[in-house]
Each structure stands twice: as C-alpha cells, then as structure tokens.
C-alpha cells in the first residue's frame, strides 16, 4: 500500500514537472507564480503620469519665489538647464543598468560600489522621501488649517469657512487625512495601480496653473501688473551668494530617479554583492519594470520632464508676474488676500484646495519607493514585500506614523525642504549617477559622459555648499 502510494506520487511529480538539465533546483511556489501573472505590465500613459506625479510636488510652490532671487529670464533658463541635466543623469543611469544586467538604481550602485554603495543609496532615498512627504503634510495643514509666519496669521480654507473649530485644528486635520486618505492609497502594492490618481493629480496641478494664468492675464489687461525683473538684483557679495540658495529647490523639483529604475527589495532581482550570491524569486516593480515594454522608459522620462518643465515655467512666470517681489516662499500663502479681481475669494479657495488635493494624490507615489527601501534595509534576504501582507502592513504603518509625527513637530516646510534639497536630493539626482558613470565598471560611458559627470559633481557640491553656508549665515544674522 505504502509502496504503491510512493509510485503514484513520483508519477504525479514527473507529469507536472519534467526533469531535465534545465530544471530548477527549487520548485517555485504556486502563490508566488500566481502573483507574478496577476500583473501584466503597466501602460505607457500610466508611466508618464506616475513619473510626472513623482516630479511635480511641493517644489512647484517654491519655484515662483526663486524668480524673485534669480529674475525671470535667468530663472526660466535654470529650470530648463536642470531639466536637461536630469535627463542626462537618468540616461547614464539606465545605460549602466542595462550593461550590468541589473534592474534597479540600487543594483547599479551595488554593481559599481559594492554592497556599501547599495546601502548608502537606500539611506539617501529614505531621507529624501521622508523629508518630501513631511513637506507635503505641512503644506496640506497650512492650506486647510492655517499657519503663522513672522507674527502674521494666514488663515486656512476650513478656518475661513467655519471659524476656529476643534475639528479643523492642525493635528486633528492631519490625523484625519492620514487615516482616511494617505493610508488607503498607500495600500496599493503596484505603482501602476495609482495611474488614475496620478492623472488626477497632474490635472489638479494644471487647474492651479490655469487659474493663476487667468488671474494674471486679467490683471495685465487692467494694467495692474508691473513688468518683472529678468535678471537678479545683485548689490553686494551677500546678494550674489544668495543666488545659490535656489539650487536645492531646483534640484528637488526634478528628483525622480528612484522611480525610473526599480528599487531594491530584499536585493530584488539583482545578485547580492560582497560574497553573497542568492537570487530573489522575482524583481520588485516600479515604473520601468512595470512597463509592458521596458525599453520605452527613456521616451517616458523625456515626455515627463518636458511636461513638468512646461508646468514649472508657466507657474513661475505667472506667479512672479502676479505677485512680483512680494511673493512669499510658499506661493500658496499669497492666495489668502484680496487679488483685486471679481470672485477673488472663490478663486483663492479653488487654487489652495486643488493643490492640497494634488499633494494628497502625489503622496502614495513617493511613499512607494520609500517603503521598498526600508524593507530592503531591514530585511535584505526576505521574500518580496508584496507577498508578505504582515510585513507590508507593519512597514507602511511605521512610516506613515513617522511622517505624521514629523509634520507635527517641524515648524515649517523650509527646515525640511532645504535639508533634503541640499543633501539627499542632490546626491540622488546628480552625484550618484555621475559617480557611477565615472567608475564605469562595464566601459559603456563615453568621453562626453565623463566630462558631464565631472561637471555635475562639481556643480552639485559647490552650489550646495554655498547654499548651506548662505542659509546658515542668514539664520545666524536673523537670530542675532
């Protein structure tokens, strides 16, 4: 009886899995296989919207203020310049990824600099994304609940509508948004599942742009708008150095590298380094690897950068034209006063609410690679995060709680914004891709790439050191 059962089991094994020289040593789990085939690839349009949503975030609110420092002509020129540099750095990164046969930013760093490079990248992505998401929460709270700056209180939308109530206070409002908006959107395991919310987010950013442009045109026709400066107003050495303080903002405005290439989760599909040699069951998906045709990633990048550059330029142009040198660091704060046109109060509310909703929808797209990187740091040899619901829930809850606490403890967006822009953002956007190209382990970088890499590293290090020095000096002078 027992022998007959053994023979029958062997027949079933032979029938279900033919054994030959190409047979795997380990039979893949059925659940893993089923989950792989449940996802058939993301669309090109979805990839463009997701990447554009990654790029267009809180940085757009600060760009009009950079025009006050740079002047309209130089400011628009620098937006285009940073967009071109971003395209170059991503193109070099994708080429090195293909040559090394690795499918992630972390994989390229590991292939070039070993496991230390991979870990350093993960830490910087986490620092950047946590800082950016804290900024998002602070702006949302400022818009809906109000904020105070230099002794002046700027009322929030809900405060204007309903007065000062317990339920529209800053902490309660952020708790509500976190539980009922951020948490459900953060539960999606594939980034392509966010393509519709990403499309809506881009549309809301366009709403902000169109209304701002319309207000500016009306005021131009009525003759109440002065012509803006085209160049910076440099009167002394301090005003010259202050030009470099806009670099972290411009760099942060175009950071998207962590979503272009997939990011590592338990080493993803890349081989581990420094003596380890296991292979994960399947790669972790982000924008490139969720595309139905991954070779289309570069057109996706170029389309997204062109779209975002156009939005940035028009926002900066109309915002600076509308408010001139009186523009605040966060341009949304300028929309709590009378604009001198019909329906001014209604338009102010639409502008602020549309952009608050935009940030709410951008949140999960930035949160996705943050969660993957933390999981890769804590559980480098574990199964993919999407197949472990318990680990997925615990990491998501811990990160959302951390961001919520940060948004309540940090007083304003510039503390987080300047720090992330001058440190992690510039490393992710320029220094790391340039260093990979200079190291060039697979000899794919051209002479032009080498020259561009040296230029990017020099520009990033110099401008951000000057920016940090200028910010610190201004802070000390203000306190004294």
UniProtKB/TrEMBL annotation:
Its main location: membrane. One of its GO terms (molecular function) is L-amino acid transmembrane transporter activity. The keyword Transport applies. It is a multi-pass membrane protein. Keywords: Amino-acid transport, Membrane, Transmembrane, Transmembrane helix, Transport. Coiled coil: none annotated. One of its GO terms (cellular component) is organelle membrane. This is Amino acid transporter transmembrane domain-containing protein. It comes from Dovyalis caffra. The lineage of its organism: Eukaryota, Viridiplantae, Streptophyta, Embryophyta, Tracheophyta.
């Amino acid at each position: 009886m027992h022998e007959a059962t053994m023979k029958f089991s062997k027949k079933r094994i032979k029938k279900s899995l033919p054994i030959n020289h190409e047979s795997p040593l380990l039979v893949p789990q059925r659940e893993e296989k089923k989950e792989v085939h449940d996802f058939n690839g993301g669309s090109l349009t979805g990839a463009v919207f997701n990447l554009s949503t990654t790029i267009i975030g809180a940085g757009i609110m600060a760009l009009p203020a950079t025009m006050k420092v740079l002047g309209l002509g130089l400011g628009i020129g620098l937006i285009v310049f940073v967009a071109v540099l971003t395209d170059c750095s991503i193109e070099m990164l994708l080429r090195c990824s293909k040559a090394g046969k690795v499918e992630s930013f972390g994989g390229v760093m590991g292939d070039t600099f070993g496991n230390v490079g991979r870990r350093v990248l993960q830490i910087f992505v986490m620092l950047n994304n946590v800082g950016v998401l804290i900024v998002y929460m602070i702006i949302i709270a400022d818009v809906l609940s109000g904020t105070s700056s230099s002794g002046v209180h700027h009322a929030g939308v809900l405060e204007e509508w309903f007065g000062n109530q317990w339920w529209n206070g800053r902490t309660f409002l952020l708790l509500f948004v976190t539980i009922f908006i951020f948490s459900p959107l953060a539960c999606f395991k594939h980034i392509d599942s966010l393509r519709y919310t990403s499309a809506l987010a881009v549309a809301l950013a366009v709403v902000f742009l169109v209304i701002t442009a319309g207000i500016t045109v009306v005021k131009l026709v009525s003759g109440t708008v002065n012509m803006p400066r085209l160049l910076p107003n440099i009167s002394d050495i301090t005003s010259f150095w202050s030009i470099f303080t806009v670099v972290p903002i411009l760099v942060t405005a175009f950071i998207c590298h962590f979503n272009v290439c997939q990011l590592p989760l338990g080493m993803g599909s890349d081989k581990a380094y420094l003596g380890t040699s296991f292979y994960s069951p399947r790669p972790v998906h982000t924008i490139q690897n969720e595309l139905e045709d991954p070779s289309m990633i570069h057109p996706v990048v170029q389309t997204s950068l062109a779209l975002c550059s156009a939005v940035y330029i028009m926002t900066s142009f109309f915002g600076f034209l509308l408010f001139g040198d009186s523009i605040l660091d966060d341009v949304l704060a300028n929309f709590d006063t009378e604009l001198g046109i019909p329906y001014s109060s209604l338009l102010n509310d639409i502008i602020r609410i549309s952009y608050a909703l935009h940030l709410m929808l951008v949140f999960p797209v930035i949160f996705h690679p943050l969660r993957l990187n933390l999981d890769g740091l804590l559980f480098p040899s574990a199964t993919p995060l999407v197949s472990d619901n318990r680990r997925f829930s615990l990491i998501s809850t811990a990160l959302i709680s951390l961001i919520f606490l940060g948004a309540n403890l940090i007083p304003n967006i510039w503390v987080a914004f300047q720090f992330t822009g001058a440190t992690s953002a510039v490393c992710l956007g320029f220094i790391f891709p340039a260093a990979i190209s200079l190291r060039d382990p697979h000899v794919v970088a051209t002479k032009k790439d080498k020259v561009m890499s040296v230029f990017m590293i020099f520009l990033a290090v110099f401008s951000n050191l000057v920016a940090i020095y200028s910010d610190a000096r201004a802070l000390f002078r203000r306190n004294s």
